[in-house]
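During the reporting period the student researcher (J.K.) took over the structure-prediction task from the postdoctoral fellow and processed the backlog of single-chain submissions. One of the processed entries is reproduced below for the supervisory committee.
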Amino acid sequence: MSFFSGLGAKLRDGLKRSQEYLSASLDAVLEPDRPIDETLYEELEELLIAADLGAPIAADFVNRAREEVMFGTVTRADQLRPLFRRFLLDTLSAATQPLDLDHRPTVILMLGVNGSGKTTTCAKLAARLREDGKQVVLAAADTFRAAAIEQLETWGQRVGVDVVKQSAGSDPAAVVFDAVKAATARNVDVLVVDTAGRLHTKSNLMDELAKLKRVIERQLPGAPHESLMVLDAPTGQNGFAQARMFHEAIGLSGVCVTKLDGTAKGGIVVRIVRELKVPIKLVGVGERLDDLEPFDPARFVDALVPSG
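J.K. obtained the following structure tokens:
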């Protein structure tokens, strides 16, 4: 994807709340003249856990900090800030992957619970792909949520892409079958499938989503090429639990983190990559159509924890 322009500024603005929380807290804990002792390590670990990085990641960084201090490469508390930036970059870069768009049609299955911004994200992705010169079709496979089909149709008209649909209450697998058939016949570049998002604790939803994947694969071997979970960043730990359940049940190829502009806990991104071993492929940092961007670890770290 080639829509990286302006990502740095958008990401900085979108992560402002996370940055203000984390940077201010780091500055308070890592004062240059403060002795590096057990109290500092404890406060630093608590801070990182509160930022939604999770206890294992917080403990790993503190252990790395201890090693650097022991070896003499870190002698002042404020030197732990650039060390933390390198730690984040190393963690995030290890699992960075672009969207797989090397197929025609590429089938992208969008997953997630209701309220995560999934349908809106489908539209944003379609819009950005169109800007990139690709032909896109949307599939309204969320046939159960009230007005979901109409919502996607409205977005389709606004974005300028066709929407394959059936009536409310129809079998989602039938919608997907028709959509794959239409995308193949029209020789489009990308098919984006909006799916149902009832509570992630209900096994029938996971069974239904697994069925959709089978229907797609039977029609188009190797597809879906992306199974992306749309995760609402402000949900924090609950969002992480959702991602884990979807990954175990469906098998995610990546995560799209939305509403990063509405939370002070952008650290959930790091936890998803580290603990689930699932790459972050897209991030949403606002309400506009162009506020969906490919994930770039270096820009993310710069936005979350500025160097100066």
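The committee noted the following: The first helix runs from residue 7 to 14.
J.K. will present the remaining backlog at the next meeting.
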